[in-house]
Amino acid sequence: IDIKQLSEDSETRTTRMAWSDSEVLIQVQMEHAIPMSSPEMNIALDFLINTRYSGGIHRASGFCHLYQFRLRRPFFVPLDSQTMDVRPSFITRAKMTPSYAAGDQVVGWLTCTPSRMEMKVLVPYVSLAGCDPVEFPEWGVMWVASDGRKRHSLARSPLHIPLDDPSLWCCARLVETADA
Fold first, then answer.
1. β-pair partners for 30
2. Which of 161, 158, 160 is nearest to 6 (CA)?
3. Where are the alpha helices (DSSP H) in the chain?
4. Using an 8 Å Cβ cutoff, are 84 and 110 in contact?
5. pLDDT tens readout for residues 51-68
6. Which one-letter DSSP state was computed for residue 4?
7. Alpha-carbon distances of 15 from 45, 91, 102, 126, 152, rounded to whole Å
8. What is the pLDDT of residues 69-98, one digit of tens each?
9. φ/ψ bin of 117: left (φ > 0), alpha (ψ from -120 to 50), beta (otherwise)
10. Residue 175: CB partners within 8 Å, gap ≥ 6?
11. 3 with 30: CB under 8 angstroms?
């Protein structure tokens, strides 16, 4: 048995983040065959952000946020930058729940073709508890997407990653780019 062959990921997934003084934009691209023969498209994206990343914490704190994006529509309706329904949600086993006072300002878009899916999420800092990218530039980040038949995640693992454990999320460091 070729273990390397078993662990290789045949799908291309790209995650990009850009931040400004007031918001962060996350872009997720996945290249794979999307089942266009189904009468309905059910796209789901669970996006998690921990604005105070610490790799040793196993239960979500008040700085851990879960936003759930959903799109359910017939396939015959074109998907060119469709806005997805978004709702802040609670993380299972969390020690504290963040305030989602401005959670309605979070926006998600989806663009889909038969071979590629792209999701963009715009999160204003006012909707993230304790968000201070200058003072705390390391964030925990994780996403899981589903196209109705297959689950995809930022972690390239065939295993089910428990989303309620922030120590398993990826670490993103927000840095400033050099002036052009």
1. 13, 117
2. 158
3. 3-7
4. yes
5. 998 888 889 999 999 998
6. H
7. 13, 22, 24, 23, 12
8. 887 665 555 556 677 788 888 888 888 888
9. beta
10. 137
11. no
